[in-house]
Write a structure and sequence with these properties.
It is built from 16 helices and eight strands. The protein is of the alpha/beta class. Bound molecules: nicotinamide-adenine-dinucleotide (NAD) and SN-glycerol-3-phosphate. The site of SN-glycerol-3-phosphate has 13 residues, from helix 8, helix 10 and helix 11.
Length: 340
């Protein structure tokens, strides 16, 4: 059945998801923040800033009007960065219908409140959190747009909504699994960006594959520890929204977080790196959030702690690596048993 879907956010991820939906035959309206981007999408069927090589489906209709995008739609899919979620949702609330199903695909926390995006959406849209679906998993827009086989999860307290989202998005190159652990899927997607930043940094410092494997494994351990404290099911982190996303972001040069980490290793300051990237690097703000959440939940997150000091307290990355290697001696099996 053809559905009317609004995609809110015409960056790389929103554009790639709009393409998947249009290829699946749905009626897609893509909300862009700027008029030139909307004009380019409508007239040339390209989005050069965010997906330079892509030829987009001509049926994708772009607009800068949230009302035009969101009124009378079956689904609204939020693909704006986490820092933009609350104010965008507040505007969407004014123009959307009560029965429209809500999905978000952002991977981060709100600054200062450290809330998950589904909490923010629930507050602003006055919706039960259990009705909000979360799309996550290993999925770079650059590959989705090329129809390279991709697997994702859609998590929701209401499994009927998860199945409906699975129905509208799934096709031969985009496989969607439903999931019931919304907190785990949301937290896994956000926290892997911290480890991806560290992986880029480590690679740029000339460390080898042993260090990368260590980062990913020990990164997963601390993601699971914080996730569990926040109410996630630890087993979720062995799936696509945990290990899967860690693998893709820590090993792919498509990753904005990995690239930002790499640039930092070349001696550039954080503000220069973010400027040069010109795209959202969620891991920076997420490091702040996880640092605060770790304190709040009294969970040990040594990698996050060291990255926090490198990003925000001018610590030399080499010193951070040494401090990680020589921190208090621990027993891996005991830790695994405690978390998993
Ligand atoms: N790019 C990917 O491959 C990918 C994959 C999965 C999830 N995500 C997640 O999707 C979210 C969006 O990422 P992206 O890669 O598309 O980012 P992007 O940098 O490519 O695009 C960001 C978009 O958000 C808009 N935006 C920025 N600030 C805004 C604001 N204050 N108000 C309204 N709109 C604003 C920009 O105009 C742009 O359209 C992030 O949370 C990211 O982690 C991205
Ligand atoms: O490019 P990144 O690092 O923002 O990661 C994008 C997606 O989250 C990968 O699944």
């Amino acid at each position: 059945m053809k559905e009317k879907v609004a995609v809110v956010g015409a960056g790389s991820w929103g554009t790639a998801l709009a393409q998947v939906l249009a290829e699946n035959g749905h009626d897609v309206t893509l909300w862009a923040r700027s008029v030139p981007v909307a004009d380019e999408l409508n007239q040339r069927h390209t989005n050069k800033k965010y997906l330079p090589q892509a030829k987009l489906h001509p049926a994708i209709y772009a607009t800068t009007s949230l009302e035009e995008a969101c009124y009378n739609k079956s689904f609204i899919l939020f693909a704006v960065p986490s820092h933009a979620m609350r104010h965008t949702a507040r505007e969407v609330k004014k123009v959307m219908n009560k029965e429209t199903r809500i999905v978000h695909a952002a991977k981060g926390f709100e600054q200062d409140s450290w809330k998950r995006m589904s909490e923010v959406l629930s507050e602003e849209l006055e919706r039960d959190q259990a009705s909000i679906a979360i799309l996550s998993g290993p999925s770079h827009a650059e590959e989705v747009i090329q129809k390279s086989p991709t697997t994702v999860v859609v998590a929701c307290g209401d499994q009927e909504v998860a199945k409906q989202v699975q129905y509208v998005l799934m096709n031969t190159s985009f496989r969607v699994y439903t999931h019931s652990d919304a907190i785990g899927v949301e937290v896994g997607g956000a926290l892997k960006n911290i480890i991806a930043l560290a992986a880029g940094l480590v690679q740029g410092l000339g460390f080898g594959d042993n260090a990368k494997a260590a980062l990913m494994t020990r990164g997963l351990a601390e993601i699971a520890r914080l996730g569990k404290a926040m109410g996630a099911k630890p087993i979720t982190f062995v799936g696509l929204a945990g290990v899967g996303d860690l693998i893709v972001t820590c090993t792919s040069t498509h990753s904005r977080n990995w690239r930002a980490g790499y640039m930092l290793s070349q001696g550039k300051s954080l503000s220069v790196v973010l400027d040069e990237m010109g795209m959202v690097v969620e891991g920076v703000k997420t490091t702040r959030a996880a640092h605060a959440l770790a304190k709040h939940y009294q969970v040990e997150m040594p990698l996050t702690e060291q990255l926090y000091q490198v990003l925000f307290m001018d610590k030399e990355p080499e010193q951070a690596a040494k401090d990680l290697m020589l921190r208090g001696k621990t027993n891996e099996m005991e830790e695994i048993m405690e978390t998993w």
